[in-house]
Amino acid sequence: MDRHEAAWLRLWAATGAAPDLSPIWARSLLQGHRIDTSELQVAFKTTPCGELSMVWPLRFTTHRRMGLTWKKVGALSNIFCLHGGLLTSVDLGVAVRQTLQALRGMQGTWSWLDVDLLETGSPLHTAWLRAAQHNDCRVERITKGRAPYILSPGTLDEFLATKGRNFRSNMRARRREVMESPDVEVRYFTQCHEMDAYFAFALSVERKSWKGRTGTALSARQWETRLYEALLTRYAEIGRVRAAVLFIDGVPTAHSMDLLQGDRVYGLKTSFDPAYTVRRPGVMLLVARLERYFQEGVREFDFIGLDEDYKLQWSRQCRAHESLRLYAPTLAARALFLSVDLRRQWRDYRAGVSAPTPAPAATPSAQPALTKSSLDGERLSVSA
User: Fold this and answer.
1) What is the pTM for the complete model shown?
2) Domains of the chain by start residue, with CATH
3) Which of 65, 262, 332, 333 matches a 20 to 30 Å C-alpha distance to 270?
4) Can you tell me the distance from the alpha carbon of 189 to that of 252, in angstroms, rounded to the nearest whole number?
């Protein structure tokens, strides 16, 4: 990472990829989770000039199934992931196919590859299905739910105009309270030297929230505290942090942690103090953030995660996600896939499902079948 981090950062910035595909995210994961680096390898591709054109950090781990030890490959970013991706400036189909071909050359070092949280029907999702078929890999498809997002129509008023009367009235009331109530204040934190202060306020809110009671607050898990501290510090250095805290009578009652990438904002984490539920501090803070983002020209606010009720009140626009598990083209891995598929069919039968099982890696009908191709002398490597 020391050798390639600058080039990796340039590639990430140039492609406008999600934050979890940057070297900042990867390094923060290493620091936060304290992952055994002997498990890590990086798939990369370079141009003739030596610049990175693709990079994908991978984690090799072992699992016990059916009384045997199996080797799994998974993307490092998927340990704590926004959306599945692959950082590349070349054609997605080519990048995915060459990555899988390189892994195929490592026969015996992996049993299956997990590619998590792909947007269903997206070019990347299609590329992985086609590459799996091209490389004779069996595919297990795992539904992962829907992720809501808001597309900005221009201003907050224009957005609220698309909603029902009650919602519109409630949100305008929350906005007036933020703007006009003398006991309400929103402070924004974007600079590197402001992160310590923000983090102290955020931890205070998290400890008092429902997360504090369930042991899932930031302060309850040291690895998560380290992860977010590293993330915020590094992203703030390049101007990508959009953090905020809402105060009522000088008390921090809600916080939000967002990342800006291009014209899109990713909502990483938010929480509020339930003692102030009647004032709805979390909603007030979201209204204030959206108004600010829309004014700054942000095109999309991504809630991240599943389509929980409170998110669906804001938007019915969702991205369906699916994870793919690609089994290596070996007899052992195919036997494992067959076992998994038979168990799935048995569960479906027990549940009264009689629909036929679709082919796991069918080629989309609108696209021609792949033909065999070589790497054409391009450099695609997997290095420790």
Assistant:
1) 0.84
2) 5-146+320-383 (3.40.630), 153-298 (3.40.630.30)
3) 262
4) 14
Q: What is the pLDDT of residues 123-166, one digit of tens each?
A: 999 999 999 999 999 999 999 889 899 999 999 999 999 999 99
Residue 132 structure tokens: 């799996």
Burial of 355 (0-12, 13-18, 19+ CB in 10 A): exposed
Contact 328, 110 (CB under 8 A): yes
CB atoms within 10 A of CB 63: 11
Strands 52-65, 264-272: parallel, antiparallel or unpaired by DSSP? unpaired
Distances (CA, A) of 110 to 72, 142, 243: 6, 20, 40
Paired tokens of 189: 């934190």
Q: Which residues pair with 42 in a beta bridge?
A: 57, 383
% of the chain at pLDDT higher than 70: 91
Pick 368 or 145 by higher pLDDT: 145
Return the number of other C-beta atoms located less than 10 Å from residue 181's C-beta: 12
Spatial contact of 328 and 112, defined as CB atoms under 8 Å apart? yes
Tens digits of residue pLDDT in 52-87: 999 998 999 998 888 889 999 998 876 677 888 899
